[in-house]
Amino acid sequence: MKDNKEENLFNKLKSTPRGQALLFFGGYFFFFLFIMLIVRIMGSGSTVGKTYDEAKGYGFSVVNITEDNYSFNHSVLLDGVNNNYKGSRKNGEERFVLSNNLGTYDYYGRGIDYFNNKSGLWIKSDNPYLFSEFFNIENVTELVDKAKLDYKTDYESGKKIYNFLITSTTIHNYFDGNDMDIADDLNEIVIHVDENNFVEKFEFKLNNYCKAINACVDELKITLEYDEYGEIKEITSPLD
After folding, report:
1. What is the pTM of this model?
2. Alpha helices per DSSP H over the chain
3. Where are any strands of DSSP class E within 126-236?
4. Which residues of the chain have pLDDT under 70?
């Protein structure tokens, strides 16, 4: 009986222009409601592994770095003198060798503390990283956010290179938090991305910024290179 009443009501609605309009718009309402429900369900999953900045469409991820387990090969080239930092890091601890024109030095780092091996004795030392603020991945991603994408290069292998431009004033204001009357010239951030869209290398070409803050005569290039993500089993502390 109930089915007959519903069928009669449906037929009556179909028989009038007003009823047809109600059926038409009612059908669209439930269709869009269904689509919105599907989108909500599909978008409610885990964010692990999602791209670093999907909104800007860069399409790369730094989760391999922020998980804090990798080997690294970083360098700071300052006015022709190269300082190379090569080692491994896991959960806030790192062991690395610093090499420059003066020699090689063995370091252990834990949090903000650093220790230098001097003839078998581990002596607490200053932070050995030149321009250490650029080695912090949070600072790096913030600077990329403030930079402007200049161009992108795609390779057949699936790897990509993103070239960003950022002004000296923007960098200075981010790190120092105050305005400074400096030449507002451009600097370059180059990001190398592997075939899985994970960042494997950052290059900061900061000649103009470095000269503007009187930290160099001609040249400053900082390279941060990462590898062996998640493969570092243990960082052995020489202090134990």
Report:
1. 0.76
2. 2-14, 17-42, 63-66, 137-146, 168-176, 207-212
3. 148-154, 160-167, 186-193, 199-205, 220-227
4. 1-58, 179-180, 183
